[in-house]
Every structure is written in structure tokens, then in C-alpha cells.
Amino acid sequence: MNNTHIAMKIRLLIPALLIGAVLLPARAQHPDTLTVDDYLAIYKGLEKKTDMFVKEQWTIRDRGLISEVLFELVNYQGEGDGELNTLRKERDVLVERNGEGMLRIECRKRSHDCEIERMDFFESGIDGAPIASLSDYAYIRSLLGPATYEKVKSNPTTHFDSHQGESCDLYFHAMNPEMMLWSTLPDSSRCYRLSAFGRMGDDYLDLPFWFQGTVAAGLRLAYIDNTSTLDLDRDYTYYSLSLGAELPANFSVLNWETQPANSPFKQRKVEGSGTGFYLKATFTPWSKLNLMTQSYQEHLEFVVEGSVALQEKKLYAASIPDTFYSVRNYLTLAAYLKHAGLFNFGAGLTWHDIHHVLHYTPEDEPLRRVEPTKNNLLPFLEVGISQDGSLLQYTITTQVNYSPVMSYGYFVVRTSLVLSNTVGFELKYFKAIRADGLPAWQYDDYIAISPVIRINF
User: CA-to-CA distance for 394 and 383, rounded, in angstroms?
Assistant: First the structure.
């Protein structure tokens, strides 16, 4: 610790010197003989030992406030310690990371008052020790100046508030609605979230929107190990588990005699024939992979999703055809490399069964199969680009699914555009590959569109 640092503390602690004169009577007779070590001993002796107390912590992610803090530190007129010199030396990198939303400051208050005793500077997404740390209330206040210091201490989004981090996320989407029910308070940058979700259609079965004939609904628990990553990928989780029920959606829609070729209201060929147990799990074991880029955002995600039929439906609406097809069980295994620059890559395999069912069956008898159950395998590959900026969030993904056994497949384009993470739309288009080989339960093309409204508070 240099002399400037010590002298600064002493100017703020004049009463401490008076007490020190009593504690050091021999030195008091000759004050001119006091050394820097003597002053330091007095200062340290007056500190309260509070290591055994739990100290409140909070994290600053507001880019404007972080910019102000960096400005004060870099332009501080005086000789700083090694930590301050490190921050000055890394100024350009810190400014760049802050502009990308990848810099955070973790603060800790003293146990006996509301003053800041420590500030740690971290690059989000990078494990390990902080870039630099500033400690001691007197030193931090002098470096930041009274105005900036008070902003850091009492910023509305980062002050010592027991409700820090609570929010409600409502996601209105015709095919994938979700509502957050509960969230833990973030400890540094980690939190759990519990949400209610819904899901209609399955892109990997080539049955989007209502053409699958079922609706899945349930609860989703997600763990986020670095909340700052949400600035770059709002769907990021370290792991998530979704459990629920998959129910028949055998509703009818208006069926005009003449319809556009790509009408989303074509007559459905696949119907729900019972209730199933739905499960989806995601896991991100590695992040910051740098497989294709040097991006700290790059991460690998594994997905398991499926449904198992538990019960068969007995009664159907009169609008259901005499015989129909039904998917009762399916399983998808997938892996995704996300945020390799602007690019995302995915690959996987989907299996599902197809039942050809006789509609009119006595209530006390099980469903009758018109033909043996078919098993269908659909490998898929996809590539796309995405950006989660502060103003515009977009995703454009192309996907190819192909059944090597039945010799048919689809080329898929999915587009999502959302402004300020609030309002937008999603469009999906499916075009058959080798349409002449399509099975009886598929159309040669599909189109599905949904408005997107997101409310977060």
C-alpha cells in the first residue's frame, strides 16, 4: 500500500489519530517520529473485525453506471495502488466489455453500516478471479468521489434491497407461451426460475402448430449460472427440466371449400388419441468453447424431449374423420452449438410412432388400429444466425429433416423478429423434399405464424 493511499485514509480519520496518540504514549511525546507503519497500525487497530458476520452483496450490471465508475477510476488524480493501476491498464478492454454487456461489478457492504467495503470487477462468462478488486470504504469513496459513490451505494436496481432481482416474465406466443411464476433472488449472478409453459406442434416431427393434434402444458424449472449471459441469449440456462401432460387438441376450425395452398387451417390429418407424459431436459455442460470463434458467448447445449402415452381417448367430436392417424409416443435427442459468432448449429434424431385409428369404437372397447403401428426416424441438421441486441432480437434458422427409411423429408425455415424484447412475430415454413413419397398423414407444405408479446417487470 503506497503513502498516498495511507495519507488519504488518515485525512478521513482524524479522530483515529487522536485516539492513536493515547494508544502510543511513547510516540505521542514525539509526533514527528511517527512512521507510515505507525499510522497504518493505528488505522488497522481501529477496524472492527466483522468477518464472522454475513455481509450483504449486490451486483451492478447497469452499463451507464459502470461507465461512470470506470471514468472516475481512470481519471483519478493521484497515485493508486496496484489494483487501480490494473484497472487503468485494462481500460480499453473494460470499456469494450461493458459496451457488450459483459462486465459486472460485485459489491459488498460493511456489516455495521451501509458503506461499501469491497468492489470486485468481473468479466462475465469468464471463470476465476476478478480483474481487480478495490477494498476499504475510505479508499473507494475517495476514488469514486461522493456523487458516484452514492449512486453505486443506492442505485435503485442494485441497492441493499431484499427484493433484488424479483421480476415477472410473461411470454405470449401461440405455439410456445410461458409465464414465470417464481424466481430466487440472484446470489451474485445465479438464480432459479419456475415457469408455467405450453407447447403446440413439433418442428422435428414436421407437424407445426395445431397439425400435431396435441397440446403440452406443465411446469419448467431452470437454473441460470450466469444471469449476465441473458443479455446475449435470453433463453440461456445451465440446465432446465420441463414436466407436464400432453393432451388431445381435437378442436375443429373453419374449413372453407377453397383455401390458399399454404393456409394454416388445412384439414388436420393427425389427431390426438390420448393423454401422455411430457418431458424436456436441457443441459449446457460447457461454455466459452472457442471451437469456431474466440467468443466467450459460445456454448454447447444438449436437449432431450419426448412424450409417452399413458391413456387412450374414448370419445371424439363428430368432425373427426372415420379413421385418422395419431402420434402417441416420440423422442428427440439434439445437440446445439450456439453463438459461434452470429451462427448457431444443431443436429439430432427424432423418433415417433404412427397409429392408424378407427374413429367409431364402442366406449367400453379399446381403440382399434386399422393397420400396424409404424415407427419413423427423422435425423435433422440445422444452421442459423441470431442476435439478442438491446433493440432488435432476431433468429433465422434453416433446417433439413429426412427419413432414410420412408424417403421423404422437409426443408424448414424459421424466422423470429422481436423489438426491444417486447413485441414481434415468428414465422415457420415447411416445404416437402420428394413430395411424391410423403406418407398419408403429411402435407407437402405447412405455414405457421404467431405474434410475440413479452412483458417483463
Answer: 14
